[in-house]
Amino acid sequence: MTHAIRIHETGGPEKMVWEEIPLPAPKPGEALVRHKAVGLNFIDVYFRTGLYKAPSLPAIIGMEGAGVVEAVGDGVTDIAPGDRVAYATAPIGAYAEARCIKADRLVKLPGPLSFEQGAAMMLQGMTAAFLVKKCYPVRAGQTVMVHAAAGGVGLIMCQWLKHLGATVIGVVSTEEKAALARAHGAAHVLLTSDDIPARVKEITGGAMLPVVFDSVGRDTFNISLDCLAPFGMMVSYGNASGPVAIPDLGILAAKGSLYVTRPTLATYTAKREDLVSHANDLFEVVSSDAVQIRVNQTFPLRNAADAHRALEARQTTGSTVLLP
After folding, report:
1. Could you tell me the CA-to-CA distances from 141 to 32, 91, 165, 258 in Å, in that order?
2. Which residues form the Enoyl reductase (ER) domain (predicted)?
3. Which segments of the chain are extended strands (E)?
4. Which domains, from first to last, does the chain contain?
5. Least confident window among 8-17, 209-218, 233-242, 264-273
6. Diameter of the chain measured on Cα atoms
7. Tens-place pLDDT, residues 162-191
């Protein structure tokens, strides 16, 4: 037996219940991982509220964790008992003391990195990796915008983009978060209360931006489009303020033959070689200190509801980790 946070119906944080559940042996191709830390991400909120549908109920939510392999099923060769591992891919089920997961979704955690770092950086860090290196390969000298720049993905992206030689315009909700974004590489920081397109026009001398990375969703979608140069790309990768309704595609023509993409980490890491490649890119920049992973909040796993309340109230910065 083990303990996990489960939801029996979708809704608010109070729907998450700490329960004892059976712990099966790993099936062929699986590994049993004893979690040392579990990551907290906004996608967890989406599954809890029902914006994203769990395969069935009751469900254990959570996409990201780090721990030690206790056993492996038949056919597993890349991972062995005793390995320190981390993961950040489907299926959900990370909000547990231990779980079985497909071994090909696990990557070995380098020795210098802690379990808390592993749980804090895999989903957010690999998201940043595919966004800036594959979805829109950012080049030195470009000026780009990052919404929610003081959040977990935002802080990683600000550092990584600066490391790539880009100029980062970060968007945040408070002056406190503005200072945090500047400290992590944002050359310019705008508040959500600003006239953001006007400020971008001023900063860029009227050139506007080749790309905007937007995890906020509904509240910022049109603002992001207005910040783009002709042929620019809007990368909408989150729904923190709610889902984006598909607009009249004519708006993209009217605003300069723009591009819009709605990428997911799952698609970009579906092949194991891509998963390992993105993980190695992440481990490289973290190990070199070009990107520092900030675990600014921790909560006991059994108190995951409190963590969700803090996340939704925008009271968190950087990464948050749940400790079994």
Report:
1. 45, 38, 6, 21
2. 11-322
3. 2-7, 16-21, 30-39, 65-72, 84-87, 98-102, 107-108, 143-147, 167-172, 188-191, 209-214, 228-236, 259-261, 295-300, 319-323
4. 2-122+272-323 (3.90.180.10), 140-262 (3.40.50.720)
5. 233-242
6. 62
7. 999 999 999 999 999 999 999 999 999 999
